[in-house]
Amino acid sequence: MVDARERAARALCRKAGNVEMAKFEGKPLWMSYLDEVDTVFRAILDAPGSSYHLVFDSLPSPKGARFIELEDDNGKSIEIGEWRARSDGNCELVLPLVRQ
What does pTM read for this prediction? Predict the structure, then answer.
């Protein structure tokens, strides 16, 4: 799976009129855009007053709490990441990693 950082860096590379897989300093050219992508992601994630709300159907208990959704401060559902079934029978929400 291509993560959000890579998709964004490839998009910036194409927007600049460059070929994503052209080599620059021994690496694909799109990788040279990762610093700009990280700057934008940090600005979004560090916005003053913003937070993520993990919504469950109850408080944690021995019986567990069921995840409902991820929301922003305004109660709007956030689509960040991808749900996947795992080989161990569980499911996971895979979130993109933003490196600092």
Answer: 0.48
